[in-house]
Structures are given as C-alpha cells and as structure tokens.
C-alpha cells in the first residue's frame, strides 16, 4: 500500500521509538468500536431519550450524562449501561492484535472494556492493569505491559468516570493518574488511536496533555470525505474546521496523520511492524558435519557473522542449533562485551529447543510452537548449513530448518540462505533463486546477492560481509 510522505516518515520514526522502548499508545472509543462495542453517542442514546434529548444533536455528551445523574439523583443506571454494553463478549480487532505483538510497554485508554488486555494476553504477554488509584503503587510481577484505564473498568462500573462532575474533580480524585500520564508524555512517544471530534473524552484528555516539552506525539484522523449529496459550502466548512483542528493539536505536540479510511490503520501498523522486525534476525542452522568446510572455518564464519550483526545494532534470535549454536552465542557476546556502552545482551535472544515431551504435547508439537514463536520475533531469516544424522547414521538435510523456511515465508519474513554452506541452506537457495518473484517481490535487488551467497568460490569473510550488507539494506 502506498502511503503519504507524512505517514512514511511516521512509520520510520515510530519504528525507531519502538526499538528504543519509548513508544506508547493512547486508545479512544473508536478503537473498541471496530470490535463491535458502542461509542459514546450510542452508549448514551437511551439516556438522552429519557431526558427528551437527541444525542445526534448534542455535542457535550459528558454534560448529558450529568443531566441524567441530576435527574435520578445517582449514577447507578449509567453504571448498569456500561456493564450491559461492555460485558458482552467481543473479539479484539486486527489493530489490537498488531499492537499487542509490538514491544509497546505502555497503554493509556479512556475505554472501559478489556480488549487491550485480552489482545496482550493472546500475544503471550503479562499485562498489569491499573484502573484505580490504589493500584498505581502495586507492581505485578513479571509484567510486560502496563495498561492505564484512567476512566475505569467494566468490572468496576460503579467507580467509573462517567459524568461532568467526575471529570471536573478528576485532577483531585485521580491526581496520581494525572501525574503518571504527564510523566509518560515527557518520556514516551504517544500514538493516539480511536479519538474523533465527537468523542467527549478528547477535550478532557487534551487538557491534561499540556506540557512544556517539545516531544512529538501522533494521532490518526480520517480526512473529511467528499459527499456529493452535501452542499459544497458545507463541505468546505467541514474541511476548514478539520484544518483548524489539526493545527490546534500541534499545541499539545500532536502531529495529525490524515487517513482516507479507518481500515488504513492496521495497514500502517503492519508497515511499522515489518520495519521494526527487520532489526531482528533469526539465524537458522544446524550441522552434524560441515561438508566442504573445515569445522573451525565454519565456526569462525558463524562467530564473525553473529558479531557483525550485533555491531550493526541488530538483534539475533537463535534456537541454539546443533553444531553452530555456541558459535552464534560466542560471536554475539564477544561484540557485546567488547563495547558494553553501545551494545546490550538484549540483542541476543536464545530459544533452546525442549528436549523432552510434556504431558500434553509430544516433541514435534513443542518444536513447532517454538519455531512459530521464534520466527515471529524477527523480520529476516538467515539459513546456514542445515544437516543432521539419520537413524541409520547417514547425513541428511535438516527437516527442521526447511520447516523454519516455510514458516518464515508464510509470515512474510525475508529469507537469506547462504547456499555456499551446503545442505538445507543450499536447497533453500535453489528454491528462492528459481522463483524469486515469490520470495522477493518489491526487493528484486536482493536476487543477485542471494546468488553470490550460493557461490562456494566466495571467501568466508566476504560471505559474512555480504550477508550483513543485505540485512542493513533491508533495514533502510
């Protein structure tokens, strides 16, 4: 999909913020609406009818909620509406799913539902949910993500922020939330998703975003659509109002990303994910024997390749493949420990394969799970050697590595087989060079380089250099 220059720049910059661990998300009602939940106008439609008001003609829905509380002398019915609307089972959206896969450690939301935490759990992460002030000083062990539900939770609807008086007192009643939000706004780059002009939370949230920092944040906003049935002057008015709104958001450090449709959001997030994942390389390989290579030459090559990838500021994921796993570890750690101020052990992610079945799963099933999760962490797969000893003592291609190639292709990962190392890597190289359009669409420049990596006449040091150059070019 072709994006605007502004969106392309955002994709590059936000991927860098993800890599630096400073990306955060602020989710509004629109993000839950895509999963089937109601937005504020629908939530309060029946309430408005009871008051003799039409929510489609009202702009201050927080005040409408206050009128209802005033009339009934309490908020019990509003709380019941939240329970009725947001307790129904709903599947998180594609947007939730992609965000949960990304290394976003901080979420803020004005929503009452549990979609964000559900998506995070499905991504095998541990969420620490904060929806009351007294939860802020408690840290959940082994948490991966913190979710601040600043206006409450569906399971505690009687304590949710619903009407105008609560909003007016929020700075006092929920002062620690305000402090935490201000701190995150100073230290993190926020992406606002699901807010619109009609969202009554937006102005209240923005009033808390005024900081003296110059940090840049982003929000998605659908561009005013041309409606041929509308009066031309009305269309001009709407577009002008949007221009002024976009300009006004700059006061809060928020850069607006205009999109044609809300379905563009997951596509943009997928582009961010692809760019971010290209900073992580999966090294697939195993070797009972090294074929035409001397053993020490092969280990030196793997060692040098891993070290070079780390020095290129990349992360390595490895399953500790038989025969080469130690060389990957040693090479990466040598580069890290040689310059600990610049590189970190987090650049090496080891996922040793389980060696014993569990009560519920046999080894092949466990290995399949491990492969799926390892490859999901990376955007590029490098294939080295790939052989194993058969039960009869013969040497055969490693079926596990061939499976890793299949998984990587199914997930859209870029395969880089070093065919000169022989065995399964050579087989994979022959496959991709036979049908390059299938594996390298849009990056055709890589094909002759893959061919060079399959040439056994190329020196070992040159092979490692070429692999690193390919990875660096893919990252741009």
Itemize the secondary structure elements and their pairings.
Blueprint: H1 5-20, E1 23-27, H2 29-33, H3 40-43, H4 45-51, H5 61-72, H6 76-86, H7 94-101, E2 106-109, H8 115-122, E3 127-130, E4 145-149, H9 164-168, H10 170-173, H11 175-187, E5 189-193, H12 200-206, E6 217-222, H13 232-249, E7 254-259, H14 264-277, E8 280-286, H15 295-311, E9 315-318, H16 325-338, E10 348-350, H17 363-376, E11 380-385, E12 387-389, E13 395-397, H18 399-410, E14 414-417, H19 423-434, H20 436-439, H21 446-453, H22 460-475
Structural description of this entry:
The mean pLDDT is 89. The protein folds into two domains: 5-274; 279-475, Rossmann fold, CATH 3.40.50.450. Helix 7 (94-101) crosses helix 8 (115-122), helix 7 packs parallel to helix 14 and helix 17 packs across helix 18 (399-410). It is 48% helix and 14% strand. The chain is α/β, with parallel strands linked by helices and 476 residues long. The protein has 22 helices and 14 strands.
Structure, briefly:
This protein has 22 helices and 14 strands. The protein is an alpha/beta fold.
